[in-house]
Amino acid sequence: MTSKGAAIAAANALTTRWAREHTGTDDTVFSAVAVWPLLALLAAGAHGPARAELADAVGLRPEEAPAGARALLSHVHALPGVHTAAGLWTRRTLELRPDWSAQLPPGTHGVLTDDPAQDREALDAWASQHTDGLITSMPVTPNGETRLVLAAAQTVRTRWLRPFQEGAAQPESGPWAGRELVALHRRTTLLDRVAVAHTGHGPLTVLKVLGDTGVDVHLILGATDLTGSQVLTSGLDVLARRCPAVAGDRLPDGAAGPGLTVGHVRSTSRDPQLDVTATPFGLRSEHDLLASARLFGLETATDSRTGHFDGISPDPLALGSARQAATATFTELGFRAVSVTALEVAAGGLPPRPRYSVRRVEATFDRPFGFLAVHRTSRLVLTAGWVAEPVPLPPWHESEWQGGHGPRSSS
Questions:
Q1: pLDDT for 114-144, tens place per residue?
Q2: How far apart are CA 320 and CA 110, in angstroms?
């Protein structure tokens, strides 16, 4: 397997493990692909138990990890609609091992001063620059003890090949029952855009919303009693083709899957119909990676009583903080997601009369659901998340509503 292939597989594996951590019911959005290269670079410079823990989290041997990091960053950056950047800032007095620093992407090395406020301003400017101003501050704060900051930024933008129409909905059952919500509606003739997979957690409905940049968003709906973690990990199993799936054009009539019904309706056209109703979302999350230090291979690396990165610098270094800020927005026109990860070391008129009976599949996402932003060709998961709360219908009439779903925060 090439460095790129190995890195994609390893980054998706980290996405799956991170998804298992989301056992609550809150909104969340996260990007493992924006963390993995940083862990890979740390693994290459670590020694002792920290090296073994990081290698386990990265899924590659430390000697192979830097090439994987460069290959993944290069692959993602080359995707249409996706921008990535990596940055390294060190104290002037910190001696870096040339073998380690040479493995970083070119043009990534900056300098930390003795003025934390000035450093903070520079780091915040970098975060804002590489996220189109959507994230205005670096998720870690340098201080007098900071010797090194390693960061990655990612922006994903795609427009739907077929836009949705905005309207209103009021679910009849489930956690959102009786609430007046903003809804997105769309009809296509391509029934295979939706499928029902048979997973370890029961049937799962997966809808692919195709973007014009080769990045698609998969909306994932499971049984009502499943957690966000179970739905997301099942969706990732489907993406990895570990679970059999039946496309919409081959589903039996009736309740074919979660939120999915199949039947026949009268139509003026011979074409089948896939009717989708979903809710827009705007999410914002901040993650303290050290709260799940074992997941990211960072348990030993935070022990400040000794150094853990002899391959980075002869000076003793320990990890002080590791955080990610991420947002995701899904509207009638498209999808946008951004993240910054930092490791601090320290639809008129009267319709014609229907003539045909056609197959109709209805997919309704009117209760909590998961999503994956996926590069269509490589199947790399760029962003993942869980939508626990819908966008409520504003107090005025829905025809006056102009959108503008700003991200709502979650921790």
A1: 888 999 999 999 999 999 999 999 999 888 8
A2: 19
Structure tokens at 197: 């997979």
Q: Which two tokens stand for residue 275?
A: 């009717």
Number of H helices, E strands in the chain: 7, 20
- Integer CA distances (angstroms), 323 to 320, 349, 362, in order: 10, 53, 40
Residues facing 274 on adjacent strands:
188, 361
The pTM (predicted TM-score) of the whole model is 0.91
Taking the C-alpha atoms of residue 30 and residue 19, their distance in angstroms, rounded to an integer, is: 9
**Do 123 and 131 form a contact (C-beta atoms < 8 A)?**
no
Give bridge partners of residue 277 from the DSSP assignment. Answer: 185, 364
Cα 249 to Cα 273: distance, rounded to the nearest angstrom: 10
The alpha carbon dihedral of 35, 12, 215, 23 has a sign of negative
Q: Max CA-CA distance within the chain? A: 80
Question: How many other CB atoms are there within 10 angstroms of residue 255's CB atom?
Answer: 11
DSSP 298-349: -TGGG-TTS---TTT-SS---EEEEEEEEEEEE-SSEEEEEEEEEEEE----
Instruction: Give me the domains of the chain, ranges plus CATH numbers.
Output: 3-158+282-345 (3.30.497.10), 161-280+349-402 (2.30.39.10)
Cα pseudo-dihedral 138, 150, 75, 327, rounded to 10: -20
| Of 21-25, 262-266, 275-279, 314-318, the least confident | 21-25
- Classify strands 245-247 and 254-257 as parallel, antiparallel or unpaired: unpaired
- Strand 148-159 and strand 334-345: the pairing is antiparallel
CB 133 within 8 A of CB 155: no
